[in-house]
Amino acid sequence: MATKIRMPEMGEGVIEGTIGRWLKQEGDKVDQYEPLLEIETDKVTTEATAETAGTLLKILVSEGETVEVGTVLAYIGQPGESVNGEAKPAAEPEAKKEPEAAAAPQPRQKSSNGAPPARSKPYTGRISPVVARIAGEHQVDLNQVPGTGRDGRITKKDILAYVEQRETRPEPEEKPEPEPVSAPPQPAPATAVPGEIMQLTKMRRLIADHMVHSKHTSPHVTTVHEIDFSAVVAHRNKHKGEFARDSVKLTFTPYLVAAVVQALKQHPLVNSSWTDDGILLKREINIGMATAIDDGLIVPVIKNADDYSLRGLARVVNDLAERARDNKLKPDEVQGGTFTITNHGVFGSLFATPIINQPQCGILGVGTIEKRVKVTKDDAIVIRPCAYMSFTFDHRILDGAAGDQFVLSIKQALENWQ
Fold it and tell me: One of 28, 42, 209, 399 is an active-site residue; which one?
């Protein structure tokens, strides 16, 4: 029976999406977890993947149309298979001769003895596009992944935990190294002739409105501290090779996220929002990380960041940043942040006074890490890798002392990294 491809759930509160572009046409063969189409919302563009393999039999929703979540977009099956009760007679005999062709091929799995792996049964549960993409990239049999979502549904957190646990097991020596992912060609930025008006993109207009709203909403105060990254640099140099062997790039961002999470637990008032009824303390710690893209700035969110190890944070940071630059984030992945980090130092900036991402209490800016001459407590002159860290906060919620104590906790966590 032909498989229905539906408009996927794009996140909490997102009830519809627009078909941006079909990546496959009717009659094209489709592999399991292969991208089928691009879906646009008011914030992001993401890809929807095929849950099963087969042939794209019929497209029901054209490019540019907006439909609700759950709407049937297309059918995938075998050539000649019935769609809406109507069969395509041209390929019907072939379908009868080869009944086994209807079985969807599973991702290729590694075998330690060199023999072809046994085929596992197709996964029949509903999954989100991001879970399907991760399963395809890491060749995961979803039947082996325990789901913790509603009705046992596999979440992004479930499959990332499964992949991390699997990669910690001893692997055979013949395990091939993953092919490096080449960066996609970057489109040229919009230009205008001097003297003319350059039209605003939708993202640029949204950024402008959000920043003006923030400055009109919160009384901004910024405090700046200098951080010695010697301990972090030493730890990173010692372990980045180990992480690289597991295809995980270890940058400074996971260290920053881990230190911020620890500080937010020590100072829960920072993980809050102002309301007319009082200060709303957040239970979850969802860290947004500002990411520069061609059209402007987007802030993907690490949900429940306190659940991750350093390795887990490194993996999710790389994943979110890469998909942010490729316009493949889901709307749910840029919502729900409770605190934001902006690492403006990647472009050489020493320090900045970032604007709060409403309705959060504050935002942390981290400047470039550079070697500086410092004087120690015993008056020795040393060279240390240092960076300025600026914390902009809502003065309705925090006073200067509370803001400084929060940054001091981050400073102590980074300078005494074990």
Answer: 399
